[in-house]
From TrEMBL:
GO terms (BP aspect): detection of hypoxia
Chain segments annotated as transmembrane: none
Origin superkingdom: Eukaryota
A Gene Ontology molecular function term of the record: cysteine dioxygenase activity
Coiled coil ranges: none
Species the sequence originates in: Cicer arietinum
The keyword Oxidoreductase is assigned to this record: yes
Named cofactor requirement(s): Fe(2+)
Protein's name according to its UniProt entry: cysteine dioxygenase
Keyword set, alphabetical order: Iron, Metal-binding, Oxidoreductase
Record-linked Pfam families: PCO_ADO
EC number(s) from the headed UniProt entry: 1.13.11.20
Gene: LOC101498674
Record field: catalytic activity: L-cysteine + O2 = 3-sulfino-L-alanine + H(+)
Amino acid sequence: MKEDIGGVSLEMEGSLVEKNGERVRHVEKVGYVKRVIVKKKKPYHSNKVKKHVSNKTLQKLFVSCKETFKGPDTIPSTQHVHKLCHILDNMKPEDVGLSKDLQFFKSEYIVKENPRVTYTTIYKCDNFSLCIFFLPSKGVIPLHNHPGMTVFSKLLLGQMHIKSYDWVDPEVSHNLLQQPSQLRMAKLKANKVFTSPCDTSVLYPKTGGNIHEFTAITPCAVLDVIGPPYSKDDGRDCSYYKDHLYTAFPNGEIAELKEENESYAWLEEIEMPENSQMDGIEYLGPPIIESAL
Ligand SMILES: [Fe+2]
């Protein structure tokens, strides 16, 4: 099934959905697909195929990212953060070719089994990447980190729960903590529900909730600006974690670091959960024009 929006469509397949009295087959993916162009006779217009038109806001975001992320060690200045947040705060689903009217975002579109997450990359270079993640209802991006990265997340559509942590001591190797292996103490930074339209969240290499988990309450689309992108070769691989109640493994020495009224947990590094693999799809929304720089 294809939903058409301004030259870009979102294809949803996976389950049988009732629409206009018809049973329609869906697969478990969400994808942009090219618009089916129906030729109509227009004697006063040329027969040229209409090109995808760039989007002013997306283009502004791209230019601002180019100015902000200059290399792997970049931590954006306060000024750059404000500028990027301002652009993202005002971003609409339509700026990346999406719409709340797409079947995927409607409440009746419920994936019953294995609600897989889908992503698309709008742009990627060595310094930053722009990605959209599509989470069906109950879809989860499990607890994962962003080593050495700054990430701006803008929930474009839907409602999701976000939980995030920072390491209590980012400099200490977990081997020195004299705790059960692979457990490391983290401070809870966020544990709340976000509903679009909402402001942008920012996480930094050592603060702002660098380790986070997304759980979709309704079908969601999240735009992530990631600088620099994940790169295994450059030591920025993604690790996954399971959080344990702090009280499950109390430790006298580390407990001294705790401040009142703050929540802590032990994070255990785990293999990537099997059911959390994502499907990648091609981005066919408004293009980014690099030559405009
Ligand atoms: Fe993330």
